[in-house]
Amino acid sequence: MGSKTKQVLDEQTIAIVKSTVPVLAEHGEAITKRFYELMFQNHPELKNIFNQTNQRLGKQPKALANTVFAAANYIDQLDAIYPVVKQIGHKHRSLNVKPEQYPIVGEHLLLAMKDVLGDAATDEVIHAWGIAYGVIADVFIQVEKEMYQEVTEAEGGWNGFKDFEIVQKVKESDVITSFYLKPVDGDVLPAFSAGQYITVKVTVPGYDYVHLRQYSLSVAPGGDYYRISVKKEGGTDHQPAGVVSTYLHESINVGNVLPITAPAGDFILNKEEEKPLVLISGGVGLTPLVSMLETTIKTQPKRAIYFIHAAQNGKVQAFQEKMNEWNKLEQVHVFTCYHQPTAEDRANNNFDKEGLIDLAWLQSILPSNDGDYYLCGPGGFMKHINQCLTEWNVPQTSIHHEFFGPEEGLA
């Protein structure tokens, strides 16, 4: 992709775009916040694609600002941000983003730059960014075109949304419920990699637009069904109820149909690695790691697995019976950490540590720091675990993570 970039971007355009990096670092979030306001005002149909909760929380504008900032910084060597492009490309393919939507984004990004930067957004700067955006957009479009093609050509694969029936609904804890899905047309399921997610489309009464949400598959590949395990979000004084998760928990039952996209995502298990597999999750972040654990049991029966899970208490922890079963296997070692265990938890002695996961505890339950680490959970949780592992001299190349929602970074 680098060669094409060099042919299109001249030195002057590159210089102008790179000169805007300090301005973007200072005003990036304001620009992207204004961008979303303008775009949804002029194209309300795009609310069908973007997660409106992440918009309200400011997560999406921040993530886009970081992407724009990186693209400007590396405009003359876009290969350097290819991993980011690929990660976002997976999300876009899963959301069914189309090439014709990119010009709309570009138009409103430039309008937002003018609005926020004022006189600093000279005609020269806007012109250069127009050219640069076209090149960046083309990189995304080409990457996503390959992804669409790959998923369409896979056995049982499909493009866009396909109807799946809920064949089983299982309450895993007070806040997490699993949904088992099978294709309505009875076709075989395409293979997926442990750790990937699907996008679910729901039409919630009272809303003018559909809602799309991405949920990790919480089951090993190779079966005749998909399973997602959904946490019912919010519903407290501090956090409003999650629109989609509440609807799924309360209104979707066995026999109902949900349109979904084919599995996507680059947070996937490396099955070639033989070092101990260390899975560290917080709350509902265990879902992709359950898929990785079940896959490793099937495909690498001699590989040591350490499954370390943090939850508030036993009431909200999912897959407790499964964990007990896994723990009986010679290759699997399960450890749980409860932040606020209940009296029942204490009476049953069904957890290994009270409080928070810390480095001293990790060092006491793991044979060494030599492992392949996968982290998933709330942002603050993963940053803390990453810090612990870094202190223990675990190389960053051995630490993999997944944010549920826009990427925040572990630093």
TrEMBL record:
Cofactor(s), names only, from the UniProt record: FAD; heme b
Cofactor annotation remark: Binds 1 FAD per subunit. Binds 1 heme b (iron(II)-protoporphyrin IX) group per subunit.
Catalytic residues (UniProt): 102 (charge relay system), 144 (charge relay system)
Homology family: Belongs to the globin family. Two-domain flavohemoproteins subfamily.
UniProt protein name: Flavohemoprotein
Catalytic activity: 2 nitric oxide + NADPH + 2 O2 = 2 nitrate + NADP(+) + H(+); 2 nitric oxide + NADH + 2 O2 = 2 nitrate + NAD(+) + H(+)
PROSITE patterns: FAD_FR, GLOBIN
Keywords: Detoxification, FAD, Flavoprotein, Heme, Iron, Metal-binding, NAD, NADP, Oxidoreductase, Oxygen transport, Transport
Region named Reductase: 156-411
Residues binding FAD: 197, 213-216, 403-406
Lineage, opening ranks: Bacteria, Bacillati, Bacillota, Bacilli, Bacillales
List of residues binding NADP(+): 283-288
Marked site positions, Involved in heme-bound ligand stabilization and O-O bond activation: 36
Gene3D superfamilies reported in the protein's UniProt record: Globins (1.10.490.10), Nucleotide-binding domain of ferredoxin-NADP reductase (FNR) module (3.40.50.80), Translation factors (2.40.30.10)
Name of the top EC class for this enzyme: oxidoreductase
FAD-binding FR-type domain sequence ranges: 159-270
GO BP term, example: nitric oxide catabolic process
Species per Swiss-Prot/TrEMBL record: Pontibacillus litoralis JSM 072002
Notes on the domains: Consists of two distinct domains; an N-terminal heme-containing oxygen-binding domain and a C-terminal reductase domain with binding sites for FAD and NAD(P)H.
